[in-house]
Design a protein that fits this description.
Length: 441
Amino acid sequence: MDLSVDANRLSNFSHSEQLQASPAQDIVAAATPDRRKRACMARRGQVGKIEVSGRWYVVRFWKYPPGQDRIHASERICPIDRKALGYLTSGERRRRATEIVDASGVNDAKQFVEDNVSITFREQAEWFLNHAVNRKRHPVKPQTISGWRYITNNWLNPNIGELPLASVDNGALKMLVVKMHERKLSAQTMTTYVNLTKLIVSSAIDDNGDELYPRKWNNNFIDLPVIENQKQPTFTVEQMNFIVSHASGQDQVLYALLAGSGLRIGEAFGLEMKHLSTDCRTITIGQAAWGKTIQTPKTKSAYRQVDVSSDLAKLIKEFVGDRQSGLLFANRSGKLLSQTNVVRRSLHPILEELGVGKTGFHSMRRFRATWLRKQRTPEELVRYWMGHAKQSVTDEYSKLSDDMEYRREVAEKIGTGFTVPAPMIPMVPRKQVHKPETVAA
């Protein structure tokens, strides 16, 4: 399982987008058996009542001690004698009364929640995960949610799940990092887990969309390690030639396509006949496979057309044969392939024979990106074919990627970087039972 969390998705999450009530909101807004005696968020915003008590003007207001009935409190404002030291006019008394009430904390939503709400990190995490996948604005993909649930269930909840949400601060994260370091987790993994924790804490908002527990996170105090020398394996030209030549059947076409186009493995598994141009030189990416389902791509940049060289297109066309519909790569029953099975049964045995450490399909994507750079491919085309976001205003202005004839010309010129195998016998699945129309959002 890939436990990494998409960094862009974490950084782009907007707390004001949460339109449904969080657990903290549910609790502070819920009615109690006797609203007149119990704390109630609806009565926040007191200004106090100014009265005369003996020789003093006082302000009276309600206080709500944690776990107790409300009490009527009063605080002195100023003497009633106009000649006495400290006497205030009517307007000054009103301002002073407001300051006294505000200073007491009865109008502080955050203080109110900390004193009266027992929402735990575990409860907020469950709400956050459910809301993230169901919200209307930028819903999170099932694959990302699956990774987040793994992190939450195996690391966050066991260590900080029972803490009140208000207590999850820099100190709590520091202890979490210590435990992860003891288990020898990588710097990237620890950063991913900490970032998810921060998202969950900040997802608790009030009725105005403001964070209930705003934090100034201090990674130096938390002692979060810096990500350095991250492992990003790739293949050389010689290794890629060996892999393609030693693969058989549709695996050979799959590996050639991955290394010759830079597609992600989910994008390749999600390809259908309708996504191929007539000559198979242009592939349209509009969906991706995850597990046993088809879902839309993660980002807008992932929607694209990828052009390949004529020799690779010929291999794909011969592999397709007379098929007009269904998945490009499928098992014998026409269903989606299992990434785990292909890696275990095909790729890893070839790598073992080659004498290379075990790695996944993403190494072929890195091979393609490296080859494109070596051939001095225009950077705009590199990002477009790889499905990466544009990085500048100039990128937005340029429409180089819209010129299919130019794209094909470049794709033919740069080639694949490895020897494409000879055309093979077309694959005909025994039964096409896949229903491509059911696409997850």
